[in-house]
Amino acid sequence: MTDTQDYHGKLVTIERFILDQQQAHPEATGTLTNILYDMALAAKIITSKTTRAGLAEILGSAGEENVQGEEVQKLDVFAQRTIFRLNDHTGRLAAMASEEEEAIIPIPSRFPVGPYVLVFDPLDGSSNIDMNVSIGTIFGIYRRTTASGPGTLADVLQPARNLVAAGYILYGASTMMVYSTGNGVHGFTLDPAIGEFLLSHPNIKLPAKPKYYSVNQGYQPFWTAGVQAYTEWLQRDTPEKKGLSLRYIGSLVADFHRNLLSGGVFYYPADSKDLKKPGGKLRLVYEAGPLSFLIEQAGGYASDGAQAILDIVPAQLHQRVPMFIGNRTLVEQAEALIRRHDGAATPA
Ligand code: P6P
Hints:
Elements: H1 14-23, H2 31-50, H3 56-59, H4 75-87, E1 93-98, E2 105-106, E3 116-124, E4 135-143, H5 153-156, E5 165-171, E6 175-180, E7 186-191, E8 196-201, E9 212-214, H6 225-235, E10 245-246, H7 252-262, E11 264-268, H8 284-297, E12 301-303, E13 323-326, H9 328-342
Parallel strand pairs: 1-3, 9-10, 9-11
Antiparallel strand pairs: 1-2, 3-4, 4-5, 5-6, 6-7, 7-8, 11-13, 12-13
The structure holds 6-O-phosphono-alpha-D-fructofuranose.
């Protein structure tokens, strides 16, 4: 097993790191390695567009032609097509599933299928683009569960504990790719001058002393009594912790990344504000699941308020789930207060 401590202070590209990690698995064929390579390439391609998003008016906004007469795509559609086109022909995947597509995405019949499935939210938080707020891509990789032929919905509807890899790409002041294959969480920062992701955050672990809580406090009137009590507990000095500061960007990958590095808890609970979303807003398969895999690899925990998100077997592709994710002590306190005030019935 490659000791990631060896990397501190060393100049390592993401490709070199992924390959080194593969060498810890003699049985590995390199297929997973190549899927991760392609996610890094997707990140570079999408970055080339997100850094100019604000210029859409000058360059033409989505659906129009830009000054070069090219059709300008909405960024989330562009991100979706980029990830699809990098993976549709490689023979590594049996199917894909995306936030942007109602059904699973089959591998075109002219291409071979492979042993993995890729689930992804191509550009989460894209409504923030016009305000130049950081946005992100979230992805998870499973081994297919069906024996052969085209991948099926069953291959995708697996509990996140089955993930073999998960990660995200944060398009912020710099572009970062953060991923895990079950051997710790590792962060890479894109150096645009050379077009390479360089290892900048080896073996990320949640700080034991949390700093922030992150929630949209605007929904407070619509929370259950348990979530109200939890929020009040987070704000207070207690024997276990100092009162936490509130930080909420409203862009999941940015909020998650900040708390991963600073320590804290992010939660998007169920609320009674929008009865069409009794289970909260975030999606289980391609948002909460992969992030829950990452947080546990970083020493934290993720719950829907009653159970580990990693153990939830999805019933539908786009099903939503309440999510409390971060330092284990903070998330377990949410479960305790919800049990005490709301009973075992909630959340949805
Ligand atoms: P609200 C962005 O639209 C998103 O899906 C996540 O990135 C973010 O965490 C959440 O919605 C914010 O939702 O209701 O607080 O605006």
